[in-house]
Design brief:
Layout: E1 2-5, E2 8-11, E3 16-18, E4 23-25, H1 28-39, H2 47-54, H3 62-79, E5 87-90, E6 94-97, E7 101-103, H4 115-135, E8 145-150, E9 157-163, E10 168-174, E11 182-187, E12 193-196, E13 203-208, E14 214-221, E15 224-231, E16 236-242, E17 247-253, E18 259-265, E19 273-278, E20 284-286, E21 299-304, E22 310-318, E23 321-328, E24 334-340, E25 346-349, E26 355-360, E27 363-368, E28 374-379, E29 384-392, E30 396-404, E31 408-414, E32 420-424, E33 430-436, E34 439-444, E35 451-456, E36 459-462, E37 474-476, E38 482-487, E39 490-495, E40 500-505, E41 511-516, E42 522-527, E43 534-539, E44 544-547, E45 555-559, E46 562-566, E47 573-577, E48 580-585, E49 597-599, E50 602-607, E51 611-616, E52 621-627, E53 632-638, E54 644-650, E55 655-662
Antiparallel strand pairs: 1-2, 1-7, 2-3, 3-4, 5-6, 8-55, 9-10, 10-11, 11-12, 13-14, 14-15, 15-16, 17-18, 18-19, 19-20, 21-22, 22-23, 23-24, 25-26, 26-27, 27-28, 29-30, 30-55, 31-32, 31-54, 33-34, 34-35, 35-36, 37-38, 38-39, 39-40, 41-42, 42-43, 43-44, 45-46, 46-47, 47-48, 49-50, 50-51, 51-52, ...
Helix pairs in contact: 1-3
Length: about 675
């Protein structure tokens, strides 16, 4: 039987949703859940009732119910974006399908043709099909997936893979988040594995050349950064570039191996940029990210074609929007720009064709570089970390993917007795916690998107919004009934008490890192709308914007009517006194823009390697209050009573490399 639900057809026999233009195949739980809603239209169903009907009374967590609901909502939104509220959450009661359900009966209009008209139409149709088959160009995306097999099964995770044109694979292997990674070279033809001798404590990235003759890697520690080239036959590395001015570097070889493309940024608070490094001369040229496009994440992924002078890089627009830029790697001329309606976490070229393999979380796609046509290949069980492409004999293209699922738990550290307890833990990546009295808010990908969740009285609930929340800094009001955040430069306020979302001001102000200032009536935010990052003050009643810093500002708080603030590209904590800025703390990294706080007379901030510190604004003394634990994400929040620190901590990870074989 088929049902019509808010203009979308649900085929219960085929287990599909369709809007006549695209079809979504429902997973088992989504199908079972929708059948329950269809048979109980406009009825509020409690969690217990859903568990009884969908999970048949099995013991399941609230998170599992939330995830199933979110997944089903997501399917409807894919077909009809305005259908986000098709399933409504009734706080403390349950869920309801918020529309009528009708049995769908398709009655096509019938027209009867004469035999002559019928034969003529049939002939025209046949000719059209023949022309399409024989005259239309065949797309590069015609190869079909024939097999998936595991390449590695080592303890821990295998990451940052690269491959030569001739079936050699390079990857890092690590047994835990704190153990130094080993660099390994593996032949896909005979399975031979060769460890590569590097400094495990400082080697942070490596890439195999297209010919398979050389490796470049990055050795970086607090004192130096070097890019080294290693010739595999002689086992001798030599330095080709001093990268001390750069951070978070990744590399990709040009097809002729005369140059490297480098993705890097100046510091943790600056956007990623793509450079071209000529190996023979060490000449470096910036290729991407003019100032007007300088977003926080910037151009964060890159891939050079292994056999053609082509470079692809991904520009982050926002959590649900990316751009793929195709560039001639010799002339540096832009050949194409394709908009993708989701973020990307990995990218690699086909070995010979002008197509790209791209990954969005667990989904693998093939993208035509010239037209931007996208084809879904495979939905995997774990997120894709990196992609490499090579060929095996006889002329068989394979796609290699490393995948693992990072997960983290929300912990509470007691400042009185130095004990730590777990507040919330599951198999998802839970980050950026904020506390409000006895409640905890955090961002999680437990429903395959970064959404904001509230954990209250051991009950978990999602804060429903008309868009993906994304990974963004947010601030809770002193009155604890509202929170504020930014999306695409606009600032929004969410009323926790009635679940209402309001737009405070639009994207034209290019806002970032907003926080409440003197009260909930004023908002402090950073913006580069004046040409550089400064702090601005917005008055909600007057609807006015006033610039408050002149020499740079990025995140800040008011204390005793004095503004304390950090800068985007310069370490230090500053204050504004009588219109003039004064340095308060010099050893205050700009990595603190996400988390630092002022409570009463204390500044709380993070120092890498040591943990969380407290600075007394009255006595000007510092105190180390929490040692950095293993897996600490430097995302934390000190409770208002200054008794506990809520923080995110990574859990042990497992992951392997899979090989997808194509015809």
């Amino acid at each position: 039987m088929k049902y019509l639900i808010n203009g979308i057809i649900f085929d219960a026999e085929q287990r599909t949703l369709t809007d006549h233009t695209q079809v979504i195949q429902l997973e088992a739980k989504s199908y079972a859940l929708l059948m329950v809603f269809v048979t109980h239209p406009e009825q509020v169903l409690s969690r217990d009732r859903l568990i009884e009907l969908v999970w048949h009374g099995s013991v399941v967590s609230d998170g599992a119910v939330n995830k199933a609901i979110s997944k089903l909502r997501h399917h409807f939104v894919q077909l009809k974006p305005e259908a986000a509220d098709i399933i409504i959450t009734k706080p403390k009661f349950g869920y309801v399908l918020n529309c009528a359900v009708q049995v769908y009966e398709h009655k096509p209009n019938r027209r009867y043709l004469t035999s002559k008209v019928y034969l003529a139409a049939l002939l025209l149709l046949t000719l059209a099909v023949l022309l399409f088959v024989f005259l239309m160009p065949r797309p590069n995306t015609s190869a079909s997936l024939v097999n998936i097999e595991r390449v590695t099964a080592l303890d821990g995770i295998e990451t940052m893979i690269s491959a030569s044109r001739s079936a050699e694979l390079l990857f890092f292997s690590s047994t835990s988040s704190q153990s130094p990674p080993r660099l390994i070279l593996k032949s896909l033809d005979d399975g031979h594995t060769q460890p590569i001798s590097t400094d495990p404590d400082s080697t942070v990235f490596a890439s195999l050349s297209p010919s398979g003759d050389d490796i470049v890697w990055i050795e970086q520690d607090p004192l130096r950064c070097q890019i080294k080239r290693y010739h595999i036959a002689t086992a001798k590395p030599h330095v080709i570039y001093d990268c001390s001015a750069l951070q978070n570097i990744k590399l990709s070889w040009q097809n002729d191996e005369q140059a490297l493309f480098i993705r890097a940024r100046d510091n943790n608070a600056s956007p990623y940029v793509i450079y071209k490094l000529m190996i023979a001369t060490s000449a470096m040229q910036q290729l991407t990210l003019p100032l007007q496009h300088a977003h926080m994440k910037g151009d964060f992924l890159l891939a050079a074609h292994p056999s053609k002078p082509l470079l692809a890089f991904v520009r982050y627009i926002e959590s649900s929007l990316s751009e793929i830029h195709i560039v001639d790697s010799n002339s540096l001329k832009t050949l194409a720009v394709h908009t993708i309606d989701h973020t990307l976490n990995a990218i690699a070229w086909s070995t010979e064709q002008d197509t790209l393999f791209i990954a969005n979380h667990k989904a693998l796609y093939r993208l035509a570089a010239d037209t931007g046509a996208k084809q879904h290949i495979k939905q995997l069980s774990y997120p894709i970390e990196s992609i490499a492409v090579t060929k095996r004999e006889p002329n068989q293209q394979v796609v290699l993917i490393s995948q693992y699922h990072a997960s983290s738990k929300i912990q509470a550290y007691n400042l009185k007795d130095s004990n730590t307890k777990t507040l919330f833990s599951n198999a998802a990546l839970n980050r950026l916690p904020r506390s409000k009295s006895e409640d905890v808010f955090f961002i999680s990908d437990m429903d395959d998107q970064h959404t904001l969740w509230q954990y209250q009285n051991e009950q978990l609930s999602k804060l429903d919004m008309p868009f993906e929340f994304g990974f963004t800094r947010y601030d809770i009001a002193p009155t604890e009934n509202k929170l504020i955040f930014e999306k695409l430069g606009a600032v929004y306020e969410y009323d926790i008490s009635n679940a209402q979302l309001h737009t405070l001001f639009t994207t034209s102000h290019q806002a970032y890192a907003p926080s409440y200032a003197h009260s909930t009536n004023t908002v402090l935010y950073s913006s580069n709308k004046s040409g550089q990052w400064q702090l601005w003050l917005y008055d909600k009643k007057q609807q006015t914007h006033r610039q408050v810093t002149k020499k740079g500002g990025y995140s800040g708080y008011f204390y005793d009517e004095t503004l304390y603030f950090s800068k985007r590209d310069q370490a230090g904590l500053w204050k504004l006194a009588a219109g003039e800025e004064q340095l308060v703390l010099s050893d205050f990294s700009n990595i603190n823009w996400l988390n630092w706080q002022i409570l009463n007379k204390h500044v709380y901030f993070y120092r890498k390697g040591s943990g969380i510190w407290q600075y007394n604004l009255h006595t000007q003394t510092q105190k180390h209050i929490m040692t950095e634990p293993e897996g600490f994400l430097h995302q934390y929040h000190v409770q208002a009573d200054e008794q506990q620190i809520i923080f995110a901590q990574l859990q042990p990870m497992q992951g392997d490399i899979q090989m997808l074989t194509f015809e």
